[in-house]
Amino acid sequence: MAAILTSLRNTVIAGFVLALVLFLLYLANPDAFGFTDIRLSQFFFRWLHVASGVMWIGHLWYFNFTQIPNMAKIPDEQKPAISKVIAPAALYWFRHGAMATIVTGIILAYLNGYLLDAYTLGALNGFAVPKDIAIGIGMWLGTIMWFNVWFIIWPNQKIALGIVDAPADAKPKAARTAMLFSRTNTLLSIPMLFAMVSAQNIY
């Protein structure tokens, strides 16, 4: 067991193996849908969407609830460990989690037949389907958050962390911009999750 848990790669592989076992147990059920059923694709992309979202929002909340509030408490000589090692690695999973979440979410919406209804906030149905409005609000908030990650937060973080060459006086401004948009995404993540969950459970 230690050989699995002391290696992140082995831990992740073991997690996928356990998920596969659960899936095989499901297939053993005579009422299970088969490999040619659209519901299998819907399930698969929903699973990937949720897993990607956990990676994305987990890192977003790590930055905003843990790293940013505690940076001032870290002695100056220790801060390079965060800015040169921890933050770049966390930002890698953060931004790719965002990309995977938006891509799998769009595929999932398409497979479920509500992509246009959701992105038009139910306008195509005369705003008569509350579920379309709810999931659409969640999708638009998620899309805005994804845009912020890739086109505002990440470019500014590259400057702030010295990943790209920039004048020294540009770093504080870039760091503040990245922080403010990260906080914006934290704010939006709460109603976004509410809208997504409500669409599946209230309507």
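The above is record 1. Record 2 follows with the same two-line structure.
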Amino acid sequence: MDKFTTLTAVAAPLPMINVDTDMIIPKQFLKTVERTGLARGLFFELREDANGKPNPDFFMNQPQYKGAQILVAGDNFGCGSSREHAPWALLDQGIRCVISTSFADIFHNNCFQNGILPIKLPQADVDKLMDDAKRGQNARFTVDLEKQEITRPDGDVIKFEIDAFKKHCLLNGLDNIGLTLEKKANIDDFETRQRASQPWRYAQAGRTA
């Protein structure tokens, strides 16, 4: 998993509440277990109108938001089913940070497992950032995870809170597998000692049906 330290990027606005995981990545795109190629399904039903043409009002179809890596969203973002494809699709599009007043718990945790920083802020602060994001390419934020700060285009700084352990994992690029591998030496040592003291366990495990 890529580390998240400091990000300076264009921010895109998504002023909708209750954007669920089916809106983020519809069910027809869930047939793969690969984490790449999912950007084509990101916000699929919002990006197109009833005739299948690009919706000019949606940020992904507007040139000023091309390459946006920060998303400012409405309340209760990522609600609905627990599909991990939702953060995968955001990440495949290049989104590394999502800002909202609240997130669904499972989506929130899945973001941290995939290198995306979800930031919770009071409504007043989200409103300021949403207004900034509507400026298009002029809306470049700097998100500093170590300092827990968002710097707005006018230089104003907004502080945010984050769980200390989740912060450590993002700063160091550690998902659950990475955390386990940090203990590899201890695991190897345990297996060596257990193999010597309880060899029958490994003989049993090595049998084939």
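The chain is about 35% helix and 15% strand.
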